[in-house]
Amino acid sequence: MACSVDYPLCTICGVRLYESSELEEPLFAQGPSPWYPDIWKTSAIVISGPRWPSYRKGPVADDSVSRYVASPSWDPGAVSIKPGGPTIFTQFSYPPGSHDNFNPSTESHWYFGVHSACEDIASVVMRTSREARIRSIGDLWMTLDQRCTKTDSEHRFFIPFLPNIPENRPGEPINLSLRRYYIPRDAIPGDQADFDDLYQWWEEDPLFIPDLTARLLSNLEKCKPADDACLQSREKFKKLPQEIKDNILAELLNQPLVLDCSYSIPQRYWKQAFEDIPFLWDLNDKILNEKIREAESAGTEWDWEKITRQLMTPVTIVGGTSQFNPEPWNYDQVGLDVPHGLNNRRRIWQILEEMYPNDVGFEDQPRNSSTSSEDGHMDG
Questions:
Q1: For 215-247, how does the pLDDT look when each residue is reduced to its tens digit (9 = 90+)?
Q2: Which run of H or E residues covers position 46?
Q3: Are 320 and 326 in contact (CB under 8 A)?
Q4: Which of 99, 111, 155, 242 is most buried (most C-beta within 10 Å)?
């Protein structure tokens, strides 16, 4: 179930927003700006918009959602608006007129913290994923707002809190929990006093991933000789109209793929599917082309089908019954050796693809109804 936490956190991915002085800063020469592995956790924004049920069934207009660069604070739930803005508390219900100098509002409003990296990934998901059901900042706000409203109205947690999200699929009975953040419960900030031993891949930068292409392509294997049945299937595929082949390839990336390879489609089409995986938008073309030429020079083919199936494996809910022995998903489980940042990117990507407005099942209510406390704290 949802829980109160000790520090501001990202309402998308569930990982803490860190104040920069809390983290070590070993610098690396990566691009024009200094970079270090933990910097992504200190780069944050807050978003604010209309509160349910003021927009009833929606949709929420993009221009009604405001975005502010923010710096996490030591205070529980607090972030500072930059530059020169006030310190505000995430998930605290502010009355109208509280921030007219920078966020004029005639209705009560609140703010949600988000990692800048998670915002960037959300933008890519909304633009490129055929599976996504959120397509705008208004859709994203409506989803987060209703999740937080639902959790606050049912549990009356102290702020900040991590909202429950659907464990069910669309069309199934609604079942809300924390399980589809895909991290162990003990890793949630504030849920346990000491969780440093659980530091794992969900703490890694999902946006800037050093050595991504070379490390990923090191998993490629050479194809084994195909049997007669596979060769016949490939010939049939080659004879299909191009439009049908394009549709088949597009559908390959719109569904979870089983790991067992059929080898019924020529490898060059699987290579195309690999290059079209939407969460691999930053592959290094030079390294990729060198890998392709390596196989051509040796007169062999890489097994693009296997690596594509491995990459498209869905993230699964943390297994195990003991909270002290969590078994979180990662790509190791399907035989891929990848940077931890890619594990985290895949997790966040799937969280975003699984979002949809009103996924907590609110019924339409009159505009003057209220569902949340005005002070953001638990009632006695």
A1: 999 999 999 888 888 989 999 999 999 999 989
A2: strand 44-48
A3: yes
A4: 111
Q: How far apart are CA 280 and CA 342, in angstroms?
A: 9
Cβ contact 108:94 at 8 Å: yes
Is the pLDDT reported for residue 371 higher than 70? Answer: no
Q: pTM for the complete prediction?
A: 0.89
Rounded Cα distance between 135 and 113, Å, is: 20
Reference 18, options 123, 120, 116, 93; nearest CA is 116
Closest CA relative to residue 205, chosen from 111, 28, 340, 308? 340
pLDDT at 368: 40
Distance CA 343, CA 353 (A): 15
Rounded to whole angstroms, the Cα distance separating 209 from 205 reads 7
Indicate the SS3 state at residue 298. helix
CA–CA distance from 232 to each of 237, 249, 251 (Å)?
Answer: 9, 19, 22
Can you tell me whether residue 41 is helix, strand or coil?
Answer: helix
Distance between CA atoms of 360 and 162, rounded to whole angstroms?
A: 14
- pLDDT value for 76: 75
Q: How far apart are CA 287 and CA 333, in angstroms?
A: 25
Please tell me the distance from the alpha carbon of residue 255 to that of residue 316, in angstroms, as a whole number.
Answer: 14
Q: Which position has the token pair 């991590």?
A: 162
Rounded to whole angstroms, the Cα distance separating 373 from 379 reads 9
The pLDDT confidence band at residue 367, using thresholds 50, 70 and 90, is: very low
Rounded distance between C-alpha atoms, residue 139 and residue 163, angstroms:
17
C-alpha span between 217 and 74 (Å, rounded): 41
Asked if pLDDT for residue 94 goes beyond 80, the answer is: yes
Q: How far apart are CA 358 and CA 41, in angstroms?
A: 28
Measured between alpha carbons, how far is residue 129 from residues 6, 133, 280, 372 in Å? 34, 9, 12, 33
User: What's at 346, amino acid-wise?
Assistant: R
Distance CA 258, CA 379 (A): 48
Residues in the chain: 380
Relative to beta strand 78-81, strand 161-162 is unpaired
